[in-house]
Amino acid sequence: MAISLTHPLNLAVQAAKIKTLFPHSSLSCNPNRLVWRATISPSPLSNTYEIELIYVRNKQPDVYVLSPKLLFFPGKSSLPHVYSTEEQRLCLYYRRASEWRKDMFLADTIIPWTSEWLLHYECWLATGIWHGGGIHNVAEIEKLKDQEINGEE
């Protein structure tokens, strides 16, 4: 049995850091759920996006783009690197690899990763090529597993 040496951050602590860094945003928090809404722009030349971060205690945080509705590159019928095109729920990290853990601040990880995702989205919208990395399908996951087994990079 593995013993974790890290402790989850209390939602009130998470909320305090977010509110300190984003004082003009909307934040609600109780002992079991944190909801943060803000308008962000990934670069000075970027669009502005209203996002919502929902973090339920003992779950993984979810981030949604509320507005504007994300568009598709011509000829594409879905968004790249999302959990849900319809909900516009972003895939920011590989959950199975524990790239984000409950002892990490949302303000230092999930929020900047959201901004980075949006910047990659804007590049994809202009070029049709996703440069944001990530694991996109089962075939890619299997290829990575094979590479690990064979000691390849």
Could you name the key traits of this structure?
single chain, 153 residues, alpha+beta, Ubiquitin Conjugating Enzyme, four-stranded antiparallel β-sheet, two-stranded antiparallel ribbon, 6 strands, globular
The CATH topology assignment is: Ubiquitin Conjugating Enzyme
Architecture, according to CATH? Answer: Roll
Average pLDDT confidence is 88
Please report the total strand number as a whole number: 6
Q: Beta-strand level of the residues, as a percent range?
A: 15-25%
Describe the structure.
The chain contains three helices and six strands. The protein starts with 10 loop residues before the first helix and ends with a helix. It is globular, with a radius of gyration of 17 Å. The chain has a single domain, classed as Ubiquitin Conjugating Enzyme, CATH 3.10.110. Helices cover 27% and strands 21% of the residues. It has a four-stranded antiparallel sheet, with helices on one face. A two-stranded antiparallel sheet has the order 5-6. The protein has 153 residues and is α+β, with helices and mostly antiparallel strands.
